[in-house]
Amino acid sequence: MTRPLVAVLSGAGISTDSGIPDYRGPNGLWRQDPEAEKLVTYEYYMGDPEIRRRAWRMRRDSGALGAEPNGAHRAVAELERSGVPVRVITQNVDGLHQLAGMPARKVLELHGTARAVVCAACHERTPMEDALARVDAGEDDPGCLACGGILKPATVLFGERLDPVVLGQAAAIAKACQVFIAVGSSLQVHPAAGLAGVAADHGARIVVVNAEATPYDEIADEVVREPIGSALPALLSALGSEGG
Ligand code: ZN
Fold it and tell me: Each residue of 131-151: pLDDT tens digit?
C-alpha cells in the first residue's frame, strides 16, 4: 500500500523547548525592539558597520548554535525513519530538525539557516562556527576570506525575499501531501502560512498543533492545543502505526 506523504510545517513553537525564543514571529523578540530589529534588517546590516559589530556580538552571546533538538524534533525524524514519507517545511533557522536526524534533503528552510554565513559579494557559504571563532579571536566584523565582502548569516533577513526555489518546492509539497501538520506556527506570516490553505485546497488532512489559535483552525480537521513536546510525539506515533 502507498503510504501517505506527510508534510510538517514547523514554526518557532517547536523549538521553544530547546531554549530558542521566538525571534521573528508577529509577536517575536525582534518585532518588539526596533533597535534589535535593525540587527536583522538587510538595509541596516549592509549599510552600517556598527550594526554588524553589534550583530556579531549578539550571535556570539546568544549560544543558539549549542541548542539541542527536543522530543518533537525527534518524533518527526522517527516518523521518517519508520518508512513514512515525510517532508519538513520550517520557518526556523536553528537546524534542529536535521540535528534530530531528518535528512537535510527532506527539510526546506524557508528562512535559511543560522548555522552558515554567506558572503554578500561572492555568495560563498561557510560555517557560522568558523565566523564566530574569528569573532572570539578578536575580529569584530569578520569579512569574507575569499573576497573581503560583507559576511551575513545565511538567514533571510528582514527586507530580503525568500528563496523562490525553496518556496516553489514548499508549494509543491503542500499540493502533493495527504497530511499537513502545522506545528508551533502562528500561521500569520505569509507565504509560509498560506501553505496550509494550499494543502487544504488540494485535499490534505490539516492538523494544527499550536498553543494559540491560528487563522487556519477553522479549516483544520484537527486542532491540538496541548504542549508540543508531548502532543506531537503522540500524534506522529499514531500516524506511523496507521500506515503500517
Ligand atoms: Zn566573498
Answer: 999 999 999 999 999 999 999
Separation of alpha carbons 45 and 42, rounded Å = 5
Give the distance (Å) from ligand 1 centre to CA of residue 155: 16
The catalytic residue among 73, 97, 111, 190 is 111
User: Between these two residues, 33 and 168, which has the higher pLDDT value?
Assistant: 168
**Which residues place a Cβ less than 5 A from the ion ligand 1?**
119, 121-122, 144, 146-147, 149
C-alpha grid cell for residue 32? 518588539
Distance 43 CA to ligand 1 centre (A): 18
Centre of ligand 1 to C-alpha 172, Å, is 33
Q: Assess whether 190 carries a catalytic annotation.
A: no
Closest CA to 224 of 14, 81, 16: 14
Tell me the CA–centroid distance for residue 192 and ligand 1, in Å.
Answer: 30
Residue spans of the domains in the chain: they are 1-20+68-111+159-244, 21-66+113-155
What type of residue sits at position 105?
A: R
pLDDT tens-place string over residues 176-221: 999 999 999 999 988 888 999 999 999 999 999 999 999 999 999 9
pLDDT tens profile 163-178: 999 999 999 999 999 9
Cβ atoms of 208 and 187 closer than 8 Å: yes
Q: Kindly report the average pLDDT of the chain as a whole number.
A: 93
Enter the CATH code of domain 1-20+68-111+159-244. 3.40.50.1220
Cα 51 to Cα 211: distance, rounded to the nearest angstrom: 34
> What CATH number is given for 21-66+113-155 in this structure?
3.30.1600.10
**CA 182–ligand 1 middle distance (angstroms):** 37
Fold agreement (1-20+68-111+159-244, 21-66+113-155) = no
